Amino acid sequence: MLTKRIIPCLDVKDGKVVKGTSFVQLRDAGDPVALSRQYYQQGADELIFLDITATPEGRDTVVDVIESVSEQVFMPLTVGGGLRNVSDMRRMLQAGADKVSINTAAVLQPNLIREGAAKFGSQCIVIAIDAKQVEDRPEPRWEVYISSGQKPTGINAVSWAKKSVALGAGEVLLTSMDADGHQAGYDIELTHTISEAVPVPVIASGGAGVPEDLYLALVKGKADAVLAASIFHYSTYSIGEIKKYLSERGIPIRL
Hints:
Number of strands: 12
Structural class: alpha/beta
CATH architecture: Alpha-Beta Barrel
CATH superfamily: Aldolase class I
CATH class: Alpha Beta
Strand order of the largest sheet: 1-4-5-6-7-10-11-12
Number of helices: 10
Mean pLDDT: 92
């Protein structure tokens, strides 16, 4: 049985790690290099680095920070934010990233997923989906948002996940905008729906508050990995504590 992964996320703005609530009200959470080192020492399985203002500001992801992080931590690193073409992807991979995460550019140019997968392999291409619930009857429907959650697209999140994987994405980073930063639990229905819809790993993101939230995302949400930020950045729980909790409840985890 494949082990489940615990993944801290660094949302970076102006060179600093920040954390918000439903993508707004950002507050400082520390230095990205120092936090990366801390999470590596605590036993994180992977790290995700998202330059959250690169796309809205129309600039490139900060390469120097990626290089500094990759020089000091030795675990899989996914980088996203401001990646618009295959050249941007190559630059991040050369700077030390193992995978690249694309959202806005993929929605605007879906063939970018295919091009990236052809150049670097599907295992390198993570499709990031920021989803907000827009209907609940007769059944829930979630809409894809782009530009760091600033722009609705009218695209159905489940359909987009399927299409992205068909184009070559090897993993889905799924963030519930409704749950993000509230620390009241992941959107289990959204996570379960997407996990059942695609044949690739799904990373659940948005809403971790207590260890049980991560457990439910893995068991009921059928996620392959859980991403968390606030509970790690502000030392509510360590990665070791989360892993111990999950292991004691039968979740296959790398201790």
